[in-house]
Amino acid sequence: MGGIEVVFWDIGGVMYDDRVYALAWRRALRAVGARFSDAEFEAAYTGCRAAQDGSFRRRLAERFLGPEHDLLALERLASRWWDYPPGALAPDVVPVLTTLRDLGYRLGVIANQPSDVRAALRRDGLEPFFETWAISADLGLHKPDPALFVEAARAARVEAGRAAMVGDRLDYDIRPAAAAGMRTVWLLRGEAPDEPTPAQLAEPDRSIRELRELPEALASLR
Question: What's the pLDDT at 2?
Answer without folding.
Answer: 59
